[in-house]
Amino acid sequence: MATAIPSLDLDPFDPVVLADPFASHTGLREAGPVVFLPRIGCFAMARHAEVQAALKDFETYVSGRGVGLADFSREEPWRPPSLLLEADPPLHDRTRNLMNRVASLASLRKIMPEWQAKADALVARLVGQGPFDAVPELAEAFPLSVFPDLIGLRKAGREHLIPYGTIAFNAFGPRNALLVEAMEAAQAATAWVAESCKRENLRPGGWGMQVYEAADRGECTQAEAERLVRSFLTAGVDTTVNGIAAALHAFVQFPDEWQRLRADPSLVKRAVEESLRWGGTVQTFFRTTSRAAEIAGCHIPEGSKVLLFLAAANRDPRRWEDPDRFAITRQASGHVGFGFGIHQCLGQMVARMEAEAVLGAMIPRVAEIREAGPVRRRLNNTLHAIDALPVELVPA
Ligand code: HEM
User: Fold this and answer.
1) What digits encode the pLDDT tens for the residues 183-242?
2) How confident is the model at residue 182, as a pLDDT?
3) Would you say residue 316 lies in a domain?
4) Nearest to residue 110, comparing CAs of 197, 207, 201, 245?
5) Domain of 141?
6) Pocket test for ligand 1, best of 239, 241, 284 (most atoms within 8 A of CB)
7) From the CA of 102, how far away is ligand 1's center (Å)?
């Protein structure tokens, strides 16, 4: 006997829900292991065990039909699909292996001292200067000072990176006002990104050029290389900006945790991991069932869109004790903030290193991260984004 799947009258892309997604997560998790959302015509999972199981079963829950609401077998995607995120094996095996070699830990370790020096200088400037908005001045400023150089992007036009990410992450949702406005505002960004992915615009030694060198060795075509470089630009900026903002916001809300980190700086890696679990930067991704699926006794028909609530899974009380609490001593590994399985985030070490550099710069210099005004959200169909985070960094 199949378990009945409850329907929930929830539109996850409603602006009210997007403004405070965590408020709807308890209802989603408690309704059942699988729920149906008639307002968007999709199935959904929000418990850690089922979300992780679906991410693992890449043959049933495929990505090639899009990881947003649109089913690419029925609708034309807004741009040529990603050869990583929106691809299934065997194509995904080939592109991912190639990209894993480029985005290697060894190459990141080499540049960490340079990143740390940049973070130290940035934080030293901000400490003691009075209230400022930590989103543009820290959470955006730091990734933009290191990531485009890592890829080898041209200098002019880098301000287009964040608006481009905003379109891409809105595009995983419905064609609502958020997407339409982002697309209208960022036509220039789309054109700039397309140009920037071309070989002649990439600097030697950067990760972008290394993708083309893999193409020279026959690991992919030149056209594929261009699209693979685009993956770095789409996925690598808005995510880390909001990841760093979420970490700062966590310490603002849980000031004792900042003191704990200052008392024991060796907790910095754990603190970053916990902020990724708690912050819910990437809220959701979709899959499409390639065949009839059975999960937790529930039947999901073939060709169904399934919305996986990563952020809800990361605060599932079945998996985490006191899950809404940000606790840097917690063992947060096992969170699905970077996904799980074959599509698990390619840039996770970049994201971790950026956040560690920022916190590492703050630990010796900042006695207290003081709230200096209300946090303002930037609504996005996929990201839990922060628009403004007024703070004051009290010098140590
Ligand atoms: C805090 C920062 C970040 C978060 C929270 C994040 C989150 C995620 C998640 C949840 C996925 C899985 C998508 C899925 O299963 O459908 C993913 C995949 C991916 N991420 Fe990240 N990401 C971050 C930073 C980055 C950075 C810095 C880069 C680039 C250097 C990057 C590149 C990618 C790529 C290319 C994929 C697709 C991988 C594949 O399909 O094989 N991400 N990311």
Assistant:
1) 888 889 999 999 999 999 999 999 999 999 999 999 999 999 999 999 999 999 999 999
2) 86
3) yes
4) 207
5) 15-395
6) 239
7) 15
* Overall number of domains in the chain: 1
**Smallest CA separation from ligand 1 atom 8, residue:** 338
Instruction: Report, as ranges of residue numbers, the positions in the chain whose pLDDT lies below 50.
Output: none
234 lines ligand 1 (CB under 6 A): no
Residue nearest to atom 40 of ligand 1 (CA): 85
Tell me the β-bridge partners of 286.
307
Question: Beta strand 35-37 with 42-45: parallel, antiparallel or unpaired?
Answer: antiparallel
Q: How far is CA 147 from CA 105, 188, 198, 326, in A?
A: 15, 20, 17, 27
Residue 10 lies in a domain: no
Specify the CATH number for the domain of residue 115: 1.10.630.10
Q: Is residue 274 part of a domain?
A: yes
pLDDT tens, position by position, 66-85: 999 999 999 988 889 999 99
In a domain, 341, yes or no: yes
